[in-house]
């Protein structure tokens, strides 16, 4: 048997660690220990200390250090020694002295000198997973840590707390308690069920998207233009098509990566072009129907969707979208100047909200309340204003401390159904107008959708939020000045 390692989790409150060496490796080992226990009892000995390691020492009162060569007396009253120098003779000398005192040793990049390894560690609240490659490939262990940190949801801490309460309150005997706990946790190992649900969703999204595309093309072509006229029109594609192509690409890139920005970016741009209000929202939702379907599918594929949260925001969001679309249809043209003012003010407030969100520091996770109301309000203003689902729903969920990638993925998937409801409402009442704008948004957004889903949670969120906020505020102010 080549791998005889036995994983053990140490309670570091009472353990005493010595690190010999203060360079890059010593810094890495110190940071590894401090991540698991910021108050760990740690002593460092080295002839040189990395500047960052000195800063860490200054910030942690439980760390002692000696800027000198290693001495045998440094091993007194120590439980574990980590050797991190670049001098093999020093490493072996420390190893032999430590072994003589019965102290366990770890030597960086020298497995033959090690009694134990410092594996890569996945932390999710009370869940902790240690990964080791038996000293063969620390880089692979690091990559596996990054992978599991990403795929294990933050909500696992809530599951652990609930299971602990269930176990403590269970009145049955040991066998009954074990059986009930196995039943309660079987969802975590039901891979086959997850795959079946994924395939089912993929088919559903593909079918709805294709049906809607055929409906859109068929309805538009049959009512407004023949194929001969369409070919003639392609020879005179307006310049606005190319502009909307770029706007659709940029808006979807930001929206898919951050969960917001598509509608408000497009709507403020189209208001400046003088497009009628119902046509603005109808065009945006028509185009967003395609890109959000692709984005939602991509997020689901990459595991960025919280299913429970999805249903709580998607169904009320659909209802709100239909209500907002109907209100805009019957008020938009009759009270055009007033409605322009309302929408420009609304997008201005959204821009300010984005700045506030970008400037917030990391906040603690809070309990979600009135999630269905949040979905309804987001859907209503999204349809009425041509955008707002992301800025309202995503920013609220992020402000509650939810993980960025899961918020973005869930909101993007729900947006598919919200835009579908709004688009059907606009189509049945208004028909299709400004085909070149719709087509530009569709092509640009569809190209960006898979890329933005891959970037979810990886873009510098603060910079992107400030950029979207700046554009929205500038466009909104220009629109207000235009109608005053």
Automatic annotation (TrEMBL):
<keyword id="KW-0520">NAD</keyword>
<dbReference type="InterPro" id="IPR006367">
    <property type="entry name" value="Sirohaem_synthase_N"/>
</dbReference>
<feature type="transmembrane region" description="Helical">
    <location>
        <begin position="241"/>
        <end position="264"/>
    </location>
</feature>
<feature type="domain" description="Siroheme synthase central">
    <location>
        <begin position="125"/>
        <end position="146"/>
    </location>
</feature>
<dbReference type="GO" id="GO:0005886">
    <property type="term" value="C:plasma membrane"/>
</dbReference>
<feature type="transmembrane region" description="Helical">
    <location>
        <begin position="309"/>
        <end position="331"/>
    </location>
</feature>
<dbReference type="InterPro" id="IPR028161">
    <property type="entry name" value="Met8-like"/>
</dbReference>
<feature type="transmembrane region" description="Helical">
    <location>
        <begin position="406"/>
        <end position="427"/>
    </location>
</feature>
<keyword id="KW-0560">Oxidoreductase</keyword>
<dbReference type="InterPro" id="IPR002781">
    <property type="entry name" value="TM_pro_TauE-like"/>
</dbReference>
<dbReference type="Pfam" id="PF01925">
    <property type="entry name" value="TauE"/>
</dbReference>
<keyword id="KW-1003">Cell membrane</keyword>
<keyword id="KW-1133">Transmembrane helix</keyword>
<dbReference type="Pfam" id="PF14824">
    <property type="entry name" value="Sirohm_synth_M"/>
</dbReference>
<feature type="transmembrane region" description="Helical">
    <location>
        <begin position="201"/>
        <end position="221"/>
    </location>
</feature>
<keyword id="KW-0472">Membrane</keyword>
<feature type="transmembrane region" description="Helical">
    <location>
        <begin position="433"/>
        <end position="451"/>
    </location>
</feature>
<dbReference type="InterPro" id="IPR028281">
    <property type="entry name" value="Sirohaem_synthase_central"/>
</dbReference>
<comment type="similarity">
    <text>Belongs to the 4-toluene sulfonate uptake permease (TSUP) (TC 2.A.102) family.</text>
</comment>
<keyword id="KW-0812">Transmembrane</keyword>
<feature type="transmembrane region" description="Helical">
    <location>
        <begin position="337"/>
        <end position="359"/>
    </location>
</feature>
<dbReference type="GO" id="GO:0019354">
    <property type="term" value="P:siroheme biosynthetic process"/>
</dbReference>
<keyword id="KW-0627">Porphyrin biosynthesis</keyword>
<comment type="pathway">
    <text>Porphyrin-containing compound metabolism; siroheme biosynthesis; sirohydrochlorin from precorrin-2: step 1/1.</text>
</comment>
<dbReference type="GO" id="GO:0043115">
    <property type="term" value="F:precorrin-2 dehydrogenase activity"/>
</dbReference>
<dbReference type="GO" id="GO:0004325">
    <property type="term" value="F:ferrochelatase activity"/>
</dbReference>
<dbReference type="InterPro" id="IPR036291">
    <property type="entry name" value="NAD(P)-bd_dom_sf"/>
</dbReference>
<protein>
    <recommendedName>
        <fullName>Probable membrane transporter protein</fullName>
    </recommendedName>
</protein>
<feature type="transmembrane region" description="Helical">
    <location>
        <begin position="463"/>
        <end position="481"/>
    </location>
</feature>
<dbReference type="Pfam" id="PF13241">
    <property type="entry name" value="NAD_binding_7"/>
</dbReference>
């Amino acid at each position: 048997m080549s791998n005889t390692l036995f994983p053990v989790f140490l309670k570091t409150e009472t353990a005493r660690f010595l690190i010999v060496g203060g360079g890059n490796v010593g810094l890495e080992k110190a940071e590894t220990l401090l991540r698991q226990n910021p108050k760990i009892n740690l002593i460092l000995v080295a002839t040189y200390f990395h500047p960052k390691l000195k800063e860490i020492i200054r910030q942690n009162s439980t760390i002692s250090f000696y800027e000198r060569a290693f001495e045998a007396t440094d091993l007194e009253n120590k439980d574990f020694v980590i050797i991190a120098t670049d001098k093999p003779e020093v490493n072996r000398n420390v190893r032999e002295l430590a072994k003589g005192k019965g102290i366990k040793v770890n030597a960086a990049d020298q497995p033959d000198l090690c009694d134990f390894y410092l594996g890569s560690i996945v932390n999710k609240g009370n869940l902790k997973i240690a990964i080791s490659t038996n000293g063969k490939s620390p880089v692979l262990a690091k990559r596996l840590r990054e992978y599991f940190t990403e795929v294990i949801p933050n909500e696992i801490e809530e599951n652990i707390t609930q299971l602990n309460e269930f176990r403590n309150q269970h009145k049955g005997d040991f066998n009954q308690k074990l059986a009930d706990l196995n039943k309660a946790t079987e969802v975590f190992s039901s891979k086959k069920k997850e795959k079946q649900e994924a395939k089912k969703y993929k088919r559903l999204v593909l079918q709805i998207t294709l049906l809607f595309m055929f409906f859109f093309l068929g309805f538009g072509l049959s009512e407004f233009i023949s194929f001969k006229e369409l070919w003639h029109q392609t020879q005179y594609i307006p310049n606005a098509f190319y502009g909307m192509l770029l706007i659709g690409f940029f808006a979807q890139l930001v929206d898919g990566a951050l969960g917001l920005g598509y509608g408000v970016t497009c709507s403020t741009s189209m208001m400046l072009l003088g497009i009628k209000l119902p046509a603005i929202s109808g065009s945006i939702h028509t185009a967003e129907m395609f890109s959000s379907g692709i984005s939602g599918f991509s997020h689901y594929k990459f595991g960025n969707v919280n299913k429970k949260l999805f249903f709580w925001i998607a169904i009320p969001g659909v209802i709100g979208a239909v209500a907002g679309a109907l209100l805009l249809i019957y008020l938009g043209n009759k009270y055009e100047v007033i409605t322009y003012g309302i929408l420009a003010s609304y997008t201005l407030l959204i821009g300010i909200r984005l700045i506030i969100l970008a400037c917030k520091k990391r906040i603690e996770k809070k309990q979600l309340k009135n999630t269905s109301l949040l979905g309804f309000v987001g859907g209503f203003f999204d349809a009425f204003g041509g955008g707002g689902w992301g800025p309202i729903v995503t920013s609220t969920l992020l402000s509650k401390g939810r993980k960025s990638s899961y918020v973005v993925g869930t909101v993007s998937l729900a947006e598919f159904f919200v835009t579908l409801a709004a688009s059907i409402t606009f189509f049945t009442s208004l028909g299709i107008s400004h085909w070149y704008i719709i087509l530009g948004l569709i092509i640009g957004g569809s190209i960006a959708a898979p890329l933005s889903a891959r970037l979810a949670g990886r873009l510098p969120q603060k910079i992107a939020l400030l950029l979207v906020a700046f554009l929205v505020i500038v466009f909104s102010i220009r629109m207000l000045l235009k109608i005053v």
